[in-house]
Amino acid sequence: MKKLVAAVLIAAFAVSAAFAAGDARKGKREWKGECRTVCHDGSKAGVPALSPTSKTQKQWDALKGKIEACVKKNGKKANAENIFEYLRGHALDSDQPETCG
């Protein structure tokens, strides 16, 4: 009985962890619609032009808090977790770096 309970708990944690991450597909739309074209296209002084390939996965990991703060500060409707998943998933050193569009 204890083994069954343990197996159910492990399965529950695995499923919840899998769904805890953001949605990179939604993040791409949110990034392009609310962040890239508004702030990070290089048109504002002091705000760098950014794309997913501007940084490595480790660099995006280090900026996760800043991404969340920026989305919250600017009152965006975007989900910071989705944007982070998109940026990290298509970073310079990822399996699928986003090189265009």
TrEMBL record:
Keywords for this protein: Signal
GO MF annotations, alphabetized: electron transfer activity; heme binding
Keyword Secreted: no
Xref: InterPro entries: Cyt_c-like_dom_sf
Keyword check for Signal: yes
First and last residue of the signal peptide: 1-20
Transmembrane spans: none
Protein name per Swiss-Prot or TrEMBL: Cytochrome c family protein
Native species: Calditerrivibrio nitroreducens (strain DSM 19672 / NBRC 101217 / Yu37-1)
